[in-house]
Predict the 3D structure of the following.
Amino acid sequence: MKHLRQATLLIALVVLTACTGPSAAVPTAAPPTGAPTAALPTAPATASPAEATPAPQPAPTAPQPTAGILPAPLYVLAGGQIVRIERDGVTRKQITDEPPSAPDALAIVWFDVSPVDGTIVYVVQGVGAPSLLVRTAADGSNRTVLSDNLYITSPLISPDGTTIAVGVSEDYERPGSQTPGIYALPIAGGTPRLILADIPATDPTTEGGDGRGFTAVAWSPDGTKLLANAYSLSVELCELAIVDVASGDQVYLGDRTANLQSACTPAIWSPDGRTVLFNTGDPGLALPDSGIWRYDVSGGSISSLPVKPDNAIVYAPHIAGDTLYALVASTDGTNPVYTPADPQPVLSYALSSVPLTGGTWTALRNDTHSLFSALWAPDGSGVVVMGGDDPINTKVLWLTGDGSPAVELYTGTDLYAVRWGAP
């Protein structure tokens, strides 16, 4: 059961807030039927000189399908299985049917989708046995097991769709049989290559512990680097690092001499890969510091992005063009920040934007939402958020920047992740 507990803890780290309660049956819907095809118009027969030429009739028009509200199909990890929601936001289908390894275990615990062709990779956890890394087509067909002898976590497909970065955990049943760390695995199948091994803890007197484990969270746009969570193996501490895929060299974000530590909240690469935007914060607190920071990858310099108000908490930044989008919680009294009397306040966030050069956040909607995960449309036109006020039933909502009403895409228990499919 050690590995089941380990997987559960890792999921909690990724989503920040663990959902409780029994697994809900995943609702399914029949696949959409194709739009009726209009009969092809036939060419009119040539009229004889004695016949009158009939007045021209309008060509028949084929019925048009309902326009999609989403930029691409959306995949939801729900109750240990993967559900695909089509662009209309309504049609959905469970595309996996993996049996859990124990009655109280979730079957699938991590997944990712290729940005190139929609190929899906996911991890089926084992109990007292290694997990399975599985690859399927975008519709769940052509199931292929890529690995069945490693304790794999957190698959992440490269921008060109050829490589999967995965975490490999310690095999406690066979100590020393595999080196934990981040590995690269060909998506077509093959032997994993170690990128960066976890650093074992050796000195218990070191503040924060000297051991580190690593989990990849985002590929650089050119596929040469990984943004990774570097977490302590002995205490609750986590910070961000940039890892070179070829050499395994790592650089930690932040400035320890200035007591500026990066937080393991969602961070992003700029589209050109030259900078990373990230939060800072005390790892012992539930919330990151206010503001947003910028790390220059080539020069190593760190600077605060000049955005107002100064006390706004910025979550899940996203860059599209010359605009920075984010979910922003203002601290004007309606959204309290950390205080000793309330160490874990629940914030509500507004979809907001600001010029990438800095300025004052502009709310793009009138509503706010409590959440623990967000997935932006690539062009910044909207965002999928997971959260809600009910601790049992998580809502998956689609929010757009034009003020349209929020669209509820899914509600259920044990919802852990969402990913875009190929457009």
